[in-house]
Input
Amino acid sequence: MFVVDTASLTWILVATAMIWIMIPGIGLFYSGMTKRKSALSLLWLSLMAMAVTSVQWFLIGYSLTFSMSGSRFIGNFAHVASINVLDGPALGSLAIPDIAFCIFELMFAATATTIVVGAVSERGRIWPTIVFVFLWCTLVYNFVAYWTWSPNGWAFILGSLDFAGGTPVHIAAGTSALVYSLVLGKRQPVTHIEQSRPHNINNIFIGTALSWFGWFGFNGGSGLAISSRAVLACVVTNLAACVGGSTWCMLDYFLLKPRYKFTTFGFCMGAMAGLVCITPASGFVGPPASLAIGFVGSVCVYFGRKIKTLFKIDDAFDIFAQHGVGGFVGCLLTGIFAQKYIPALDQVTIAGGWLDGNWIQMAYQLALACAGFAWSFIITLILLLIMDRIPGLALRTSEDGEMQGIDFDQFNEYTHDYIEFQRELYPFKSVSVNSVVTIQTIDNRNDVQKENDVKMVQIRSSLPVEDVW
Output
């Protein structure tokens, strides 16, 4: 019978709750970036991804990822339906019970699936997305997480370093989101230039704040103990986010047109980039290195957004750049800046990175990052192509449903009032500058549009009106 460290157990439970907050935070972030007529679907999907992943984790996910025995490639079914997962010592720590470790690691899986589902924005059907979440968690996340964190996994044995999920969470999810966007195809062309911009900066701001808050548990709790190393992980996490957000703002200030303007959206994107990049390194690097990681990561993600343009993939939220590129860069930078004295604070021994003269570490990091990318890309592509050919699991909604918006097409609920929904349905032009605005409807109107068609709107004002909406 082992002795539970109650302080560490308390910290892990608090960290678990903090990471849970990240999941609706990501939903708010995505919801703010999309058009308002599809905003609610992304909020719903964030919680549904959490629900489906929780069931999968209880049934088979935890066993496949963290069973005490297994091959170099994947675990076994020793803990199916959480059999024998209760008060024994956790796989990663003798300080906390197995059940605490189980629910803590569940949050990482749920975060990964929530990141992936952002790829369905504005054009993906909901039922296939639910099925995909369960299958993706089983065939992609469980495998990559096992390689990385299980003592029997090939990458762990090789010596690859990933403290909190740079490869299982970010590279795997970002790559799979890119594939999902590729298979779904491009969204319908927008009818107004403003519609291609984030519709709600407030949601993006709140989503970033919740994610930033949760990341302290994400990285700080990954050592599975309350210690100086856990505090240091929180310090470097915060520094990387601050530098990442500031760097992105400066890039926008000098490069984005109109120039010499600050952007809240830019700071949020940069902060998230810094958080992603520090994730694999957070338990291995000190504050000076975190400044470099936040800066380099933000720059790489900023310009990494051009990858989707180069390959003509409609990645609506730059998920691949943010998580795929960011996770890859963070994984490699871990090989440079990791120092063995930091994990030694928790009595953990590593060889260190380039700063400690361990030059081979970069090869180990590259092997894990490339394997995570390749596995996620290939398995996700096969999975989606098969699903799309199964009756009832077609991935993309109809053209009519896409034009109406996913919120109306598959929920009949809205985050905003119905007037706002109508404004996005109708392309329009004004013909009077004083009192009358004519709305020119498109030719292929559906029933909903016809029922709510408005030909003339009388404006009781003497002020010039050129663009009512």
Observations:
- Confidence is low (pLDDT under 50) at residues 427-469.
